[in-house]
């Protein structure tokens, strides 16, 4: 049964969300709770933006567990042309590829076709591939961390090819290998299914379309489904019938590199912050109409999801509040008892 302290931790986070609707969900050991505000419920679908990449990372780990790919495979092994330099799948999954944040040509096309309405809608998967030969890497792969939506999108395309598809089958592969086995019935890349209405600067937004970069930001999900994902990450052995998926759930949490001068580490897409009482893993995402956060602490079996249907704002107060709430979830409230005693 969920106790009042968990509820008390989550309610202030709902108040921070500036959108018309918000949903927050948490798991703490054997407790779980979903709270909603406004015209949304626990199964309302939100655009998750870059939180999509955590699903792409899980797909990579699942294919690797099956032996269909290896982390150090060159990317162009699965493309119809060669790339300059030893760019690998692991580089894409740790933002060390050297690829720019967006593919060349996307911004120019977006300005012509809908930068203020739907900036990714006119950029196809064919455009993604066409951009690769004229892309200059910002640095040699593996030498620096540079966040890249281009890299996330390319990873999904390559995984679809590696699994026997043509490259445009990311959504189907995700359903077959990840969302289906985990029972995530609200989660997919389909822009035509019902979802919350996004808002930007107080105005309703059209549904975001990302035909060329689905693996970087096209996933929609609900508080209920994302809480189920975190529960699976906290207990992989109990989460899935598939041995490959159980392995993948553990593999995405393994640190792959340290970020210089920050103390942070990168797993497969997930950011990891070392703490005295155990690691904290987190990621966030945003679109022109939505903001999303997910994070978990494996050591205390605690996880948090925070969703709102408004675009991120400068300084990201909702994301910052969600991060702080996650850190506080396993700390006792004043006047309550925790693992180290009682606070007054």
Automatic annotation (TrEMBL):
<dbReference type="Pfam" id="PF00144">
    <property type="entry name" value="Beta-lactamase"/>
</dbReference>
<dbReference type="InterPro" id="IPR012338">
    <property type="entry name" value="Beta-lactam/transpept-like"/>
</dbReference>
<dbReference type="InterPro" id="IPR001466">
    <property type="entry name" value="Beta-lactam-related"/>
</dbReference>
<feature type="region of interest" description="Disordered">
    <location>
        <begin position="188"/>
        <end position="207"/>
    </location>
</feature>
<feature type="domain" description="Beta-lactamase-related">
    <location>
        <begin position="10"/>
        <end position="313"/>
    </location>
</feature>
<protein>
    <submittedName>
        <fullName>CubicO group peptidase (Beta-lactamase class C family)</fullName>
    </submittedName>
</protein>
<dbReference type="InterPro" id="IPR050491">
    <property type="entry name" value="AmpC-like"/>
</dbReference>
């Amino acid at each position: 049964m969920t106790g009042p302290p968990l509820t008390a931790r989550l309610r202030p986070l709902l108040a921070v969300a500036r959108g018309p609707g918000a949903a927050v969900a948490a798991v703490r050991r054997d407790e779980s709770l979903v709270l909603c505000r406004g015209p949304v419920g626990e199964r309302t679908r939100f655009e998750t933006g870059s939180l999509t990449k955590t699903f792409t990372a899980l797909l990579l780990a699942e294919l690797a567990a099956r032996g269909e790919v290896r982390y150090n495979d060159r990317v162009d092994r699965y493309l119809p042309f060669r790339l300059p330099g030893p760019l690998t799948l692991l580089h894409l999954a740790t933002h060390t590829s050297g690829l720019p944040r967006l593919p060349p040509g996307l911004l120019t096309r977006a300005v012509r076709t809908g930068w203020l309405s739907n900036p990714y809608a006119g950029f196809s998967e064919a455009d993604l591939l066409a951009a690769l030969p004229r892309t200059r890497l910002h640095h040699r792969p593996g030498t620096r961390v540079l966040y890249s939506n281009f890299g996330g999108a390319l990873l999904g395309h390559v995984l679809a090819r590696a699994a026997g598809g043509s490259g445009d089958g990311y959504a189907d592969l995700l359903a077959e290998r990840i969302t289906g086995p985990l029972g995530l019935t609200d989660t997919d890349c389909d822009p035509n299914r019902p979802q919350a209405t996004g808002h930007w600067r107080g105005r309703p937004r059209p549904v975001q379309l990302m035909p060329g970069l689905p693996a970087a930001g096209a996933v929609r999900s609900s508080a209920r489904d994302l809480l189920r994902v975190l529960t699976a990450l906290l207990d992989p052995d109990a989460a899935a019938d598939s041995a490959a998926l159980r392995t993948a759930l553990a593999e995405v949490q393994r640190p792959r590199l340290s970020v210089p001068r920050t103390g942070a580490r990168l797993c497969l897409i997930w950011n990891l912050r070392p703490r005295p009482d155990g690691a904290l893993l987190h990621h966030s995402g945003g679109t022109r109409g939505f903001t999303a956060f997910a994070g978990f602490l494996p050591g205390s079996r605690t996880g948090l999801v925070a969703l709102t249907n408004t675009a991120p704002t400068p300084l990201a107060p909702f994301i910052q509040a969600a991060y702080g709430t996650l850190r506080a979830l396993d700390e006792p409230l004043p006047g309550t008892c925790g693992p180290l005693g009682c606070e007054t």
